[in-house]
Amino acid sequence: KFGDIDNLKGLVMRFLLTTSYYQLSVQNWFSLHRLQLVYNHSVQATFNATRIYAPSSYSYHCDRVSSLQRYDALLIPSSPNDVSKLWEVTFIDFQIQGFNIQEGHFAYAKDCASFFSPAILMGLVMSLILLLVLAYALHMLIHLKSLDRHYECKASPAYFVQMKDNDMGDEKEPLRNSGNESYELRNQQFCKIYI
């Protein structure tokens, strides 16, 4: 009850709540069925409420409950020809609890914010993209061919005909062959690369 506001005598807002038992959730739920604006001792505007419900032991909370489309219009005029269309009703930081009120305080609130807000949805999409990039990178790593099997490194000696220099005696070793005397150089490697 708001009392007299300008030329509105005895302004009252009536919230008509209903309660129902749902077997699936095994508890009672309340819902806001209708909002009535009463002034000058008669009902002047009626709005049907949509999607305003919560378990009976909870309260319902929403940042904005409005009849305006820009605020998601949870309050809808009861009939197209009604004078309700002339009213714009918006509640900011709206919280209601019709049943099981204890010590004049609201119970835990069921919020009207949807589970998939735009920020959450963008986060999920970005996570999916990053997961696909990671899966592609792992796929490429798994199918990466190792270069080890394409390199064939062999320690093969090089043979030179005997030279007259005597100071290389510790780096060469005579080979026993039939005919020519040859020397082998130690610790020399060469690699063949197959492409």
UniProtKB/TrEMBL annotation:
<dbReference type="InterPro" id="IPR046755">
    <property type="entry name" value="VAS1_LD"/>
</dbReference>
<dbReference type="GO" id="GO:0012505">
    <property type="term" value="C:endomembrane system"/>
</dbReference>
<dbReference type="GO" id="GO:0098588">
    <property type="term" value="C:bounding membrane of organelle"/>
</dbReference>
<dbReference type="Pfam" id="PF20520">
    <property type="entry name" value="Ac45-VOA1_TM"/>
</dbReference>
<feature type="domain" description="V-type proton ATPase subunit S1/VOA1 transmembrane">
    <location>
        <begin position="114"/>
        <end position="151"/>
    </location>
</feature>
<dbReference type="GO" id="GO:0001671">
    <property type="term" value="F:ATPase activator activity"/>
</dbReference>
<keyword id="KW-0472">Membrane</keyword>
<protein>
    <submittedName>
        <fullName>ATPase H+ transporting accessory protein 1 like</fullName>
    </submittedName>
</protein>
<dbReference type="GO" id="GO:0030659">
    <property type="term" value="C:cytoplasmic vesicle membrane"/>
</dbReference>
<dbReference type="GO" id="GO:0030641">
    <property type="term" value="P:regulation of cellular pH"/>
</dbReference>
<feature type="domain" description="V-type proton ATPase subunit S1 luminal">
    <location>
        <begin position="2"/>
        <end position="99"/>
    </location>
</feature>
<dbReference type="Pfam" id="PF05827">
    <property type="entry name" value="VAS1_LD"/>
</dbReference>
<dbReference type="InterPro" id="IPR046756">
    <property type="entry name" value="VAS1/VOA1_TM"/>
</dbReference>
<dbReference type="GO" id="GO:0033176">
    <property type="term" value="C:proton-transporting V-type ATPase complex"/>
</dbReference>
<keyword id="KW-0812">Transmembrane</keyword>
<dbReference type="InterPro" id="IPR008388">
    <property type="entry name" value="Ac45_acc_su"/>
</dbReference>
<keyword id="KW-1133">Transmembrane helix</keyword>
<feature type="transmembrane region" description="Helical">
    <location>
        <begin position="115"/>
        <end position="138"/>
    </location>
</feature>
<comment type="similarity">
    <text>Belongs to the vacuolar ATPase subunit S1 family.</text>
</comment>
